[in-house]
Amino acid sequence: MDVRGLEPGSGEGPLAIICGGGSLPFAVAETVARRGRPVILFALQGFADPACVAEYPHHWIAVGQYGRFRRLAEKEGVRDIVFIGSLIRPALSQLRLDLGTLRVLPRVMALFRGGDDHLLSGIVRILEQDGFHVFGAHEVAPELLMPEGVLGRYAPSERDRDDIARGLALIATIGAFDVGQAAVVADNHVLAVEAIEGTDQMLSRIAEMRQSGRIRALAGTGVLIKAPKPAQERRVDLPSIGPQTIEGVVRAGLQGLALVAGETMIAEPARVAEAADRAKVFVVGIPGAGR
């Protein structure tokens, strides 16, 4: 794991965390700050939680304000960046363009003609060409990676493991099309595949289909499987879960969730384990492809 320049006292300056929604950006910030390295949040307007942002040195930026980000980063002495947190992909017409963004607008427009990984990988290249160093959240906060094995008291059954295997194969197949990082499988039957709506909304869709009778599988069957796309840029958009994911699994009537160990981030693991135990669902870290 490459953590060059990330140790406290390395002289590399503070770590910038460009943070979207959810609790994971703040779990990463807390982990890095606990080691002694300063962090500065660049909070995305409309996505990051204002109450949590206020606990750290921060600046608010709108999606598309690349010029503002560069000016503030230079002022703060920032060269190292982490992207983390949920974000709804905007349309080009919704971007808050400033002069710094207009400079790279033709390249940004080309990046929008593709999936999320295509877009994010291209943004990473633009940042690196401007002299920034982009790191994955798993590189700066490896403590938040899902370990292999069961988290909590409950373990998957053989039927659950069959569902997990099918879900992993499905994600590996559709990943070639830059689609989704999650699927729900029950009794070897694919119930849902994550698309643009994200994991939480996919689980809400499962819950609604159960209530309407569209899903006949008994409550307490089925697994949420999360895994990175096969060729994904690991420094951005790694799959992640938090306590709210457990709530979604329970509402969807599933038996548990499986995450690829070492390639999935988990915010507040102690709270996740407690929530899973209360709900009597399993959380398990599984080997990825080739392991």
Question: Which sheet architecture does the biggest sheet show?
Answer: 6 strands, mixed
Residue-averaged pLDDT: 86
Share of helix, binned: 25-40%
The CATH homologous superfamily of the largest domain is named LpxI C-terminal catalytic domain
Number of structural units classed as domains: 2
List the strand order in the largest sheet: 6-13-11-9-7-8
What Rg is obtained from the alpha carbons, in whole angstroms? 19 Å
**Principal-axes shape call:** globular
Count, helices: 11
CATH class of the largest domain: Alpha Beta
Q: Enter the CATH topology name of the largest domain.
A: Cytidine Deaminase, domain 2
* Model regions low in confidence, pLDDT < 50 over at least 5 residues: 1-11
Task: Please give the CATH architecture of the largest domain.
Answer: 3-Layer(aba) Sandwich
